[in-house]
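Why Adenine phosphoribosyltransferase? Reviewers of the renewal asked for a concrete example.
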Amino acid sequence: MPTPSITDYLRSHIRTVPDWPAPGVQFRDITPLLQDPRVFRVLIDTFVHRYMDRAQRPDVVAGLDARGFIIGSVLAYELGLGFVPIRKKGKLPFTTVQETYELEYGSATVELHADAVRPGDRVLVVDDLIATGGTMMAGKKLLEKLGAEVFEGAAIVDLPELGGSQRLREAGLALFTLVDFGGGN
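Here is what the prediction returned.
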């Protein structure tokens, strides 16, 4: 985790929307982090400083549809790396590989271009938050199908009460998150 002051600063710019999209849900809205240029810079710089380190440096950054595209593409740019979008089914025009995962009520499928990564590439997977972990797990599996090594998953927010971060760690994925909304906070 970053220093408490950065965590607190970022947390103070995440809006909680009660009862959205359903009653009882506390939606964590990251758009205020993106709207203020100073806050957005702190957010991106926190990730950049972590992944500039030689031991943590990826070969490629992959972002999960859709908010992972925002952070992932800017991070890739700042690190001088390529960016790979992992999209919802039916959005990519070239040959793809697919992974279907379970949601609370149904399932979803994500896709990746078959030539998006090379075998042996060290890949960082980025999303805005980790809830149940299904999307990040599906992205990890897609990248591994192509022979890449997914060495870490990164997100702004962790919602540990939904079990996703634990599930991902149990599957062998190291995680880096900036703000934890566990314990009802």
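The domain at 55-180 is CATH 3.40.50.2020 (Rossmann fold). This is the kind of structural detail the renewal will allow us to pursue systematically.
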